[in-house]
């Protein structure tokens, strides 16, 4: 047995397809001092038994990009390494048996074109020519993706391993990592069954073991294994070798031609979590016991679609474990908790088709110190510490597996493991008819059901059942006053004698402001990309309150701490749970609040973008005059135990002022009318303030500069080639969500990043980036030209603008 080296640049734990891909891509980038440790044998965990589907169209842009790259890589890997992969580009066919599924598929096909993936919408009879063995009487339509493929997972993983080895990567089988060595917050090595290896970076590619591996150093890797089933039939006579992969999502089934046999697999609505007490150490090339009763109803559905299945014997009933995450997206990147510790795990049954892309971008991330593109969808920093809770993961996993083939309704909420994080106002809001949506475990009111209606979602791609109610909340905010529970905001106290100097380097705007001032600002990376979008309130000479979105809590706190120099005399404390936030917004907000406080709320005494402690009811609360809805209003930061009494005091006077309780759907419509950006959607670490139209929040010449200034200056000089614009769709009944293609004069120029209905003008709205043909975009490109937005294959005229459609001069917020 060769000796383990004492040190390596990168140590990878786990020799499944993902670990092999990370090793391969590190080596391709010239980083060859890499050690990969595999507990038993390469592929022995989950990889060996995958069905090998290589689809490319995923729910988001980045997931699709990575899957597309994977398909291209697998197509050439055999030639490059000499190791057969079994990859074949046979295409895939997705079926719709009802109008809503067809709408979903057609919207997906539009998105595919926008992402550069070939897609054609087919009639049932056209689909039948591609898959003659199937029953088509109940079909409404289908979508064909001709460049999708299938591969042999073991051979493909071994090809990646061979490619990695040929560049010098050392792969050790039968060596188990037993601990990760951390010093001063950084991973510096790995303990193994054969001794310690020091390392500059460690990568956790431990598949379904990855949660426990993360736990060694208190890192959150929220995933749970579930049983996953397929069958392989006896040979089917005259099975065409060119059959594309068939997905019948309405029957939870997929079908693949496999050396003259059919492989049929399922994504059932209620899955079976597995490995609740941890994954056995010795688990290797193992299967789980059959459960025919579990798959029987699914098998019946599959036989209805492909009747020949009822006539051939079953050669293999397969059941093997795969890991699933609470939101069905994988976990990638450097962890928030430990520097130089990376993760690539939780692949939700798409690890084969994602491994190429995930390995590539993770290798880039490791070597360059930052992700090569916007990867927020899959970024491990979206994980919340509580999500390691095993009971939570177990219960959510029952649902996650099936969601892969369920309808991907807009605004769809998980049904399991709910009610984990609640504001102290939750019960009051529920009693008032709130319907809740979950973000990072936090239950937030999305809309309020008026008396006589049930606060439950009825999903559709059309107007959902809350459409009117959110509209009424929206109107209340525009014309009277609305009350929002915004407690899910993440809040950080940043305090110490060096707070101003440190925070001013991190913020692109100038936060060296008088006490009581509020500053809207972005945090940029060295490339000028937007890492965070926050408000900063100067509470005292040496103390700031930083407020950011709920979903960014882990990420932004890590960014703040990591960009605080070690010697700086400041400390960042997460005070999210210490404050409830009530937003009181609308032209009557001043009158309403004035009825519960003796402090002067007039414009002169309390101007926009200021903040101070006021009496409210019997409490003292921080009132901050700021808005995300484009109206006069205050966010009230209330110490948690005072929140109920303050809420009651406001509500008691609400009726006099036409107040309505309002939720996040109404808020979204309001912010879209104002063109306010949402981080993670309209702005990401791959977009700069100049591209996003946020140049007004950049303090170019403040003393000491800020992170990202040089890159931004260069871009300002060169001019930007892409720009975020606001769109109004001219057809009121076709709703926009995001990722719809944007056309200008018949040419595809971009895609939408957010969509909502603009209740004020009665038309759908979107924000989205457009890219100019010329390297520099001028305002004429946006204000002239014939714009269209594609919805489910249909191009619909739209108007484009760089200004918000509502109150472009911002007079209402300063009223
Ligand atoms: C029935 C089924 C069908 C599937 N079909 C498809 C499909 O068609 N297409 C698709 O894209 N995906 C599919 N998948 C999913 C796919 O198989 C997985 O997403 C993928 O294999 C995950 O790869 P991985 O490298 O993350 O995990 P694994 O393959 O499990 O690799 C993790 C490795 O880490 C090793 N390890 C763990 N702990 C340690 C330690 N302490 N020290 C050293 N090594 C350690 C393990 O031994 C293991 O080899 C399917 C999965 C199942 C179960």
Descriptive tags:
eight-stranded mixed sheet, alpha+beta, 815 residues, 28% strand, binds flavin-adenine dinucleotide, nine-stranded mixed sheet
Explain what this protein looks like in three dimensions:
There is one protein chain. With 815 residues, the chain is of the alpha+beta class. The longest helix is centred in the N-terminal third of the chain and has 21 residues, at 61-81. The strands form 7 sheets. Strands 4, 5, 6, 12, 13, 14, 15, 16 and 17 form a 9-stranded mixed sheet that branches. Strands 1, 2, 8, 9, 10, 11, 18 and 19 form an 8-stranded mixed sheet that branches. Strands 29-30-31-28-22-32 form a 6-stranded mixed sheet. The protein has 19 helices and 38 strands. Bound molecules: flavin-adenine dinucleotide.
- Bound ions, cofactors and other small molecules, one mention each: flavin-adenine dinucleotide
Compute the separation of the termini in Å. Answer: 77 Å
Which geometry do the CA atoms define?
globular
Biggest sheet details: 9 strands, mixed
Indicate the multimeric state: single chain
Determine the mean pLDDT: 97
Spatial extent as radius of gyration: 27 Å
- The percent range for helix content is 25-40%
- Helix run count: 19
Structural category is alpha+beta
Percent of residues in β-strands:
25-35%
Query: Based on DSSP secondary structure assignment, what is the total number of beta strands?
Result: 38
């Amino acid at each position: 047995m060769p000796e383990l080296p004492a040190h390596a640049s990168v140590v990878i734990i786990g020799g499944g397809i993902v670990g092999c891909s990370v090793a391969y891509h590190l080596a391709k980038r010239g980083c060859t001092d890499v050690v990969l440790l595999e507990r038993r044998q390469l592929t022995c965990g989950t990889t060996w038994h995958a069905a090998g589907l290589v689809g490319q169209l995923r729910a988001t842009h980045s997931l699709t990009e990575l899957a597309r790259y994977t398909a291209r890589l697998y197509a050439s890997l055999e030639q490059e390494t000499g190791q057969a992969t079994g990859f074949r580009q046979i295409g895939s066919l997705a079926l719709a048996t009802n109008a809503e599924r067809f709408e979903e598929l057609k919207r997906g096909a539009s998105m595919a074109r926008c992402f550069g993936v070939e897609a054609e919408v087919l009639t049932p009879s056209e689909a039948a020519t591609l898959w003659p063995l199937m029953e088509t009487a109940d079909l409404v339509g289908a979508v064909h993706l001709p460049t999708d493929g299938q591969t042999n997972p073991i051979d493909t993983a071994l090809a990646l391993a061979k490619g990695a080895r040929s560049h010098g990567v050392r792969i050790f089988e039968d060596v188990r990592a037993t601990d990760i060595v951390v010093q001063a917050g950084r991973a510096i090595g790995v303990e193994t069954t054969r001794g310690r290896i020091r390392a500059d970076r460690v990568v956790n590619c431990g598949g379904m073991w990855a949660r426990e591996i993360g736990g060694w150093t208190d890192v959150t890797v929220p995933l749970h294994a579930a049983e996953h089933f397929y069958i392989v039939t006896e040979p089917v006579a005259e099975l065409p070798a060119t059959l594309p992969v068939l997905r019948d999502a309405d029957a939870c089934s997929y079908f693949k031609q496999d050396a003259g046999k059919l492989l049929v697999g399922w994504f059932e609505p209620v899955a079976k979590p597995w490995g609740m007490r941890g994954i056995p150490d010795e688990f290797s090339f193992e299967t789980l016991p059959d459960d025919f009763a579990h798959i029987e109803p699914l098998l019946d559905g599959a036989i209805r679609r492909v009747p020949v299945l009822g006539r051939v014997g079953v050669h293999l009933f397969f059941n093997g474990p795969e890991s699933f995450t609470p939101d069905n997206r994988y976990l990638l990147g450097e962890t928030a908790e430990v520097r130089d510790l990376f993760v690539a795990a939780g692949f939700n049954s798409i690890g084969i088709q994602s491994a190429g892309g995930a390995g590539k971008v993770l290798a880039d991330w490791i070597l360059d110190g930052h992700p090569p593109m916007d990867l927020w969808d899959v970024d491990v920093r979206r994980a919340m510490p509580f999500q390691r809770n095993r009971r939570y993961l177990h219960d959510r996993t029952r649902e996650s597996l099936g969601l892969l083939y369920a309808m991907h309704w807009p605004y769809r909420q998980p049904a399991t493991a709910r009610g984990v994080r609640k504001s102290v106002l939750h019960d009051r809001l529920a009693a008032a008819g709130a319907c809740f949506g979950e973000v990072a475990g936090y239950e937030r009111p999305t809309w309020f059901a008026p008396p006589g209606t049930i606060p439950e979602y009825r999903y559709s791609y059309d107007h959902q059942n809350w459409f009117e109610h959110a509209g009424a909340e929206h109107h209340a905010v525009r014309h009277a006053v609305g009350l929002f529970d915004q407690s899910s905001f993440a809040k950080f106290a940043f305090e110490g004698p060096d707070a101003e100097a440190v925070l001013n380097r991190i913020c692109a705007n100038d936060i060296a402001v008088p006490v009581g001032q509020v500053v809207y600002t972005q945090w940029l990376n060295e490339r000028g990309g937007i890492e965070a979008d926050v408000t900063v309130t100067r509470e005292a000479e040496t103390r700031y309150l930083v407020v950011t979105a709920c979903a960014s809590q882990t990420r932004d706190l890590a960014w703040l701490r990591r960009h605080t120099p070690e010697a700086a005399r400041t400390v960042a404390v997460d005070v999210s749970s210490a404050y409830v936030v009530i937003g009181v917004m609308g032209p009557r907000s001043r009158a309403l609040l004035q009825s519960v406080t003796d402090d002067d709320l007039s414009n002169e005494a309390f101007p926009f973008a200021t903040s101070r402690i006021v009496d409210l009811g019997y409490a003292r609360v921080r009132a901050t005059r700021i808005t995300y809805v484009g109206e006069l209003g205050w966010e009230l930061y209330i110490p948690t135990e005072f929140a109920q009494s303050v809420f009651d005091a406001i509500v008691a006077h609400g009726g006099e002022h036409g107040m309505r309780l309002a939720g996040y759907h109404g808020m979204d419509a309001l912010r879209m009318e104002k063109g306010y950006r949402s981080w993670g959607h309209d702005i990401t670490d791959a977009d700069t303030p100049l591209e996003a139209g946020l140049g007004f929040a950049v303090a170019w010449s403040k003393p000491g500069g800020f992170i990202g200034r040089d890159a931004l200056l260069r871009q300002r000089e060169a001019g930007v080639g892409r720009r975020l614009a606001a769109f109004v769709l001219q057809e009121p009944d076709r709703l926009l969500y995001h990722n719809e293609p944007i056309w200008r004069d018949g040419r595809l120029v971009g895609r939408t990043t957010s969509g909502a209905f603009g209740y004020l003008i009665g038309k759908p709205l979107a924000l989205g980036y457009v890219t100019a043909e010329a390297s520099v975009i001028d305002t004429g490109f946006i204000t002239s030209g014939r714009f269209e937005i594609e919805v489910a294959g249909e191009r619909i005229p739209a108007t484009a603008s760089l200004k918000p459609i509502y109150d472009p001069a911002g007079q209402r917020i300063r009223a």
